[in-house]
Design goal:
Helix content: 40-55%
Number of helices: 16
Largest sheet: 9 strands, mixed
Order of helices and strands: HEHEEHEHEHEEEEHHHHHHHEHHEHH
Bound molecules: adenosine-5'-triphosphate, magnesium ion
Strand content: 15-25%
Number of strands: 11
């Protein structure tokens, strides 16, 4: 079942049940506490908090999401992309827990002939919030799930709130048992690789107070209008339905891996480290494509920095696969072709998108060419003297002279088994910044001419993905 087909089934199922189909919002978060939309519900937050009146009481969407907080997982787990699509169904003061569970169960286990996904009911496990006896009972009654396949979990995993006064409530997560060859028995609390989380149902039931901690805060009372917010990972369902091993091997992503094989002459499946690199390439190229499509341009801070980092990591992963010529002119069109069935705007806008991406690769190639030899010889020196730490002034020189951002130096040093003296690096950066400030002041007051201070602050402040809705709770 192609990814676009799962998406179509989703929208049909929920629109047949009175949900208004709302197109995906842009990846740029409307909420200033996050850079990107990290979940399907983000565009609907004003309706959940009661700040705005929703134009409909039921809605459904397939929302583009970017979670940079998952970047280190990419290619290593089976299930984390920096870009992914979240299918959601939402109720604003309309149906609640029982219907949400019924819809989820019916869609997952309904036969393929009748528009469902056709999962065998015996492979489904769920978790509920530890005190949510109602959800526990509903999974038994509505879905007929045996109690052994319903596991209770604490606040950290199964409770949602924004972290401030407002709606809050328990969640219930739905997992598919991939089978004994993928891990140990015992349900999702024992093994999240074997038991793959595909869907999170959030029951916004209470109003919480400000303050408290992640695990403990005051509940002010029941919400007058209770909401449902759910999120199903489209790529995760696709990888299960397509019978492949992970989300990077689905129809919308794998063609880039295939192209990386052709470019590098290496075979996917031969070597673990190379496989991870190819998955990283496929993920990052797709994320960059979608980010540029939504109007983001490479920059030294904020969203643009995230884009820059994704493109650079993809290019570097290709270098580690042995490819030194430009790679995006081959990889990006492949990713676009794999995604355009769901996002036709990619085709129409591709001249602009590709120009931005290729320009960034060119600039980065120049940076790499000049800095890599320097880094390598510095690393060799440290190693030959039996050390494990690259000095801060080396990292500083790489930054200052060759434009290597610190996280590039960190990553490249780590690949060769070295750590970097980051503290010393940061001290040097601060000193430089103070010098630049003093110089600028002197200049303004008519003093000596100085070198211009250029955006060092942005490099200093490590790029932050504000976790907002994910750091302490399990949002859909
Ligand atoms: P996990 O525990 O696997 O990291 P999560 O609990 O962080 O997932 P939620 O915040 O509950 O995920 O998001 C709802 C759904 O979105 C998940 O059930 C999953 O199917 C999907 N999803 C979440 N993060 C990713 C990701 N990085 N890549 C692909 N799909 C994702
Ligand atoms: Mg997660
Ligand atoms: Mg989870
Ligand atoms: Mg979850």
């Amino acid at each position: 079942m192609r990814t676009a087909e799962i998406r179509r089934r989703w929208l049909t199922y929920f629109s047949d049940r009175g949900h208004t189909v709302v197109p995906s919002a842009s990846l740029i978060s409307p909420d200033p506490s996050t850079l990107f939309v990290i979940a399907g519900m983000v565009p609907f937050i004003p309706y959940m908090t009661g700040e705005q009146t929703p134009p409909w009481s039921r809605a459904t969407s397939v929302q583009k999401c970017v979670r940079t907080s998952d970047i280190e997982e990419v290619g290593k787990t089976t299930r984390h992309g920096t870009f992914f699509q979240m299918n959601g169904n939402f109720s604003f003061g309309d149906y609640f827990k029982e219907e949400a569970i019924r819809y989820a169960w019916e869609f997952i286990t309904g036969s393929e002939d009748e528009g469902g996904l056709g999962f065998d009911p015996d492979v489904i496990w769920v978790t509920v919030y530890q005190d949510d006896d109602e959800a526990f009972r509903l999974w038994q009654e509505v879905a007929g799930l045996p109690a052994e396949r319903i596991q209770r979990r604490g606040m950290r995993d199964n409770y949602w709130s924004t972290g401030a006064r407002g709606p809050a409530g328990p969640c219930s997560e739905i997992y598919v048992d991939r089978g004994p060859e993928f891990g140990v028995e015992g349900g999702p609390i024992a093994d999240e690789d074997r038991y793959l989380e595909i869907w999170n149902l959030v029951f916004m039931q209470y109003e919480r107070a400000d303050g408290g901690t992640k695990d403990h805060f005051e509940i002010l009372g029941e919400l007058r209008k209770k909401n449902i917010d759910t999120g199903m990972g489209l790529e995760r369902v696709a990888f299960l339905k397509q019978g492949v091993d992970n989300m990077y091997e689905i129809d919308e992503v794998f063609p880039v891996i295939a192209a990386a094989q052709r470019l590098s002459g290496k075979r996917y499946g031969d070597n673990h480290d190379d496989d991870v690199r190819m998955r990283v390439v496929a993920d990052h190229v797709r994320s960059a494509l979608m980010l540029i499509s939504d109007g983001i341009k490479p920059a030294n801070e904020g969203r643009g920095y995230v884009l820059r980092r994704l493109l650079r990591r993809a290019v570097r992963a290709m270098r580690l696969l042995g490819v030194t010529e430009p790679t995006l002119p081959v990889l990006l069109p492949v990713s676009k072709d794999a995604m355009k069935a769901s996002y036709p705007e990619l085709e129409a806008d591709f001249a602009r998108i590709s120009q931005i991406a290729y320009g960034e690769e060119e600039a980065f190639r120049r940076t790499l060419d000049s800095g890599t030899t320097i880094l390598d010889s510095a690393v060799a020196k440290v190693k030959s003297s039996g050390g494990t730490l690259l000095a801060g002034d080396q990292a500083f020189a790489l930054h200052d002279t060759y434009g290597f951002p610190i996280d590039l130096t960190l990553e490249m040093a780590a690949e060769q088994g070295l750590k970097v003296d980051e503290e010393a690096f940061r001290t040097l950066m601060t000193e430089q910044r103070q010098r630049a400030r003093a110089d600028a002041l002197a200049k303004r007051s008519g003093g000596v001419d100085t070198q211009v201070y250029q955006g060092l602050q942005s490099e200093l402040d490590a790029p932050v993905q504000f976790l907002g809705y994910t750091d302490h709770t399990a949002p859909a």
